[in-house]
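User: I'm preparing a small set of examples for a lab meeting where we compare how different chains pack in three dimensions. I only have the primary sequence for this one, and I'd like the structure in token form so I can line it up with the others. Please keep the answer compact; I'll paste it straight into my notes.
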Amino acid sequence: MLTGKKPFKGDTATDVLIAVIQKQPPPIESLLPGTPSALKAILVRSLAKDKASRYQSAGEMVADLKSFMETFQAKPESSWPPTKRLDSDSQAGELSQYRTSISRYEIPEPVEKVSPETNMDRARDTAARLSTVPRKNEKPRMIPILIGSALVIVLGIIAGTWNLLRNKLPDKTASSVNSVQGLERSLKFFLTIQKMRDGQPFREPFESSGQDVFGDGWKFKLNFMSPQAGYLYVLNEGPISDGAISYNLLFPYKSSSQLAAGGSVETGWYQLTDHPGTEKLWLIFSSRSLDELETIKNVEVKEPAQLDFIRRLLDQGSRTVPDVKTDKVSERTTLTARGDSLIYALELKHR
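Assistant: Understood. Below is the structure token output for the 351-residue chain.
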């Protein structure tokens, strides 16, 4: 009120609260030269950070203010506080300097200029108001302000720390939701094809999304990658045997089915011979190891329990068709589906 400026500043309310607790206000002489030492002492004691250094009651502050006013009134010729007058032209000139770079600065609000008489009237009003406050068992007004400020800052620190930890630590709640709704799984694949002629490689191998028409005797590899960890299986749907479809386990065969997060897997070579038509390969990417497939010892699946598991698994998978996106430039196909297992039927044309 004496200087027309706030003792603590900040870009945000939190910055102001931190400044109240941690920083000292600028000396009043820097804002109002010639401030009487008695008034300066009252301000310093009122804004002290240490509780013991502040006024312990409003009565103490009233007494000091009355003492200061009596001393000040005894010197009517005192030149304090100094005044500075600005005519309208000079003030407009100051504001125009800010308007020319308004994208970088804000135009400051004009500071109210008051006379010494007005300051004295305000001091008397303040003393009168304070004198009506009970003096006994009274707590300084700065205490609730500082306590409230400290609580806001502590809560802000706790919230910031929680957000930081939440981004780094596993979210158990999210895991629970995913276990119910089904975590989205993604699998990208492409084929490496080797043309064959008279039993010998013909030209260089090339990459394909699997939409090429295979010639007799051509070989191919499957290449997989995924941002998630999981277990990968490739089944080849064979001819009908004993009234039911037969299956061959192409991958894994004497290797691990595990695919690391962000990793890649390349199968061995497979060859298409005889039986022109369409070969159906079932790609299975599961979040867990499928024991029924891990225990298959031979390429051809013969155990009734294993065959029954495969049929039920593929029947269930065929009800949830994954989203399929093929990049014709890179020849990569990306499969996306929700659930513990992603199951896709890849059909290869063979002439």
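A couple of notes for your slides: The radius of gyration is 41 Å. The CA atoms of residues 3 and 65 lie 17 Å apart.

User: Perfect, thanks.
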